[in-house]
Specification:
Elements: E1 3-9, E2 18-24, H1 33-46, E3 69-70, E4 73-74, E5 95-99, E6 108-110, E7 113-114, H2 117-125, H3 146-156, H4 163-167, H5 174-185, H6 194-207, H7 218-222, H8 230-246
Parallel strand pairs: 1-5
Antiparallel strand pairs: 1-2, 3-4, 3-5, 6-7
Helix pairs in contact: 2-6, 3-5, 5-6, 5-8, 6-8
C-alpha cells in the first residue's frame, strides 16, 4: 500500500502547529496503525529529519496511551484503540489525516502527544476507600451482589485513553469521570465515601477546564471499551443526592 499522510507537527505547547505531508510506501495491510507510523519515522530518521512524536506503550489495547484522531475520528474508523487498528481498514492511495486529541484540558506536548495528567488528578481527587488494616480479609467476608459486581467490572474497563473527550463536541470528560466514580460507588467497599467521591471528582473535572456535557452520545460511540452512556446519568443522580446531603 502507498499512502499520503497529513500529520500534525508541533514542537511544544507554546509553538504554532501545522499539518505536514508525507508519502509512505510498502505498507502491509496487516500492519497496525502504529507500525505504519514506525515505518514513517524510520524513513524520517534515515533522511535526517525529526521523527513524529506519538504516544504508545502496551500496543495491546490495554493502556490507552495511543491517542490519535484519524480522519476526524478518535482512534480511527474502527471502534478500537489506535494500536489495534490495522491498515486493512484503509485503501491503497488513501490520504490520512493524523492529529492529536483536541481539548483545552489536553495541551500538546509535541506533535501527536498530549498531556492527559488532568485525568490523573481527577482520579486522585476521588480519595480512598474505607478498609480495615491488618491481615488480608477473607474474600467472601464482604458480600457483593452479582449486579453490583457486573456494573463495577463494566465501568472498570475504562482505560483512560481520552477518546470520549476527543469525540465530544464540548470536550467533556463526563464519561471518563462517571466510569471512575461508578466503578467504586456500586461496590460495598466504596459506599462510605460515595458522596464525597462524586462531588470531589466532578469538582476536579470542572477545575481542569473540560467542557460541559450535553449528552450528545459521541463519547460512548467513540469509547473503545464500550462504557455506556447511562453511566453519566447514574453519576448525575449520585451527584445530586450527595449535593443535597452536603447542604
Amino acid at each position: 500500500m502507498s499512502l499520503t499522510l497529513r500529520v500534525w507537527r508541533q514542537k511544544n505547547a507554546a509553538a504554532d502547529g501545522t499539518m505536514s505531508t508525507y508519502e509512505v510506501e510498502g505498507i502491509s495491510p496487516d500492519m497496525s496503525f502504529l507500525e505504519m507510523l514506525d515505518t514513517l519515522n524510520e524513513s524520517l530518521i534515515l533522511a535526517g529529519d525529526d521523527p513524529v512524536a506519538f504516544d504508545h506503550d502496551c500496543r495491546e489495547g490495554i493502556c490507552g496511551a495511543c491517542s490519535l484522531v484519524i480522519n476526524g475520528d478518535a482512534h480511527g474508523p474502527e471502534r478500537t484503540t489506535t494500536c489495534q487498528l490495522h491498515m486493512r481498514s484503509f485503501s491503497d492511495g488513501d490520504t490520512i489525516d493524523i492529529e492529536p486529541w483536541r481539548a483545552s484540558a489536553f495541551p500538546v506536548v509535541k506533535d501527536l502527544v498530549v498531556d492527559r495528567s488532568a485525568f490523573d488528578r481527577i482520579i486522585q481527587s476521588g480519595g480512598y476507600i474505607t478498609a480495615p488494616t491488618g491481615a488480608a480479609p477473607e474474600a467472601h467476608a464482604t458480600a457483593v451482589p452479582k449486579p453490583a459486581a457486573d456494573a463495577a467490572f463494566e465501568h472498570a474497563e475504562c482505560i483512560g485513553c481520552g477518546a470520549c473527550v476527543a469525540a465530544c463536541p464540548n470536550g467533556s470528560a463526563m464519561l471518563f469521570t462517571s466510569a471512575k466514580v461508578n466503578h467504586l460507588n456500586v461496590l460495598p467497599q466504596g459506599s462510605p465515601e460515595r458522596g464525597s467521591r462524586v462531588l470531589d471528582m466532578v469538582g476536579q473535572m470542572d477545575d481542569e477546564g473540560f467542557g460541559g456535557c450535553t449528552l450528545t452520545g459521541e463519547c460512548a460511540t467513540a469509547c473503545p471499551k464500550g462504557i455506556p452512556l447511562f453511566s453519566i446519568t447514574k453519576m448525575n443522580r449520585e451527584f445530586v443526592r450527595a449535593a443535597r446531603k452536603r447542604q
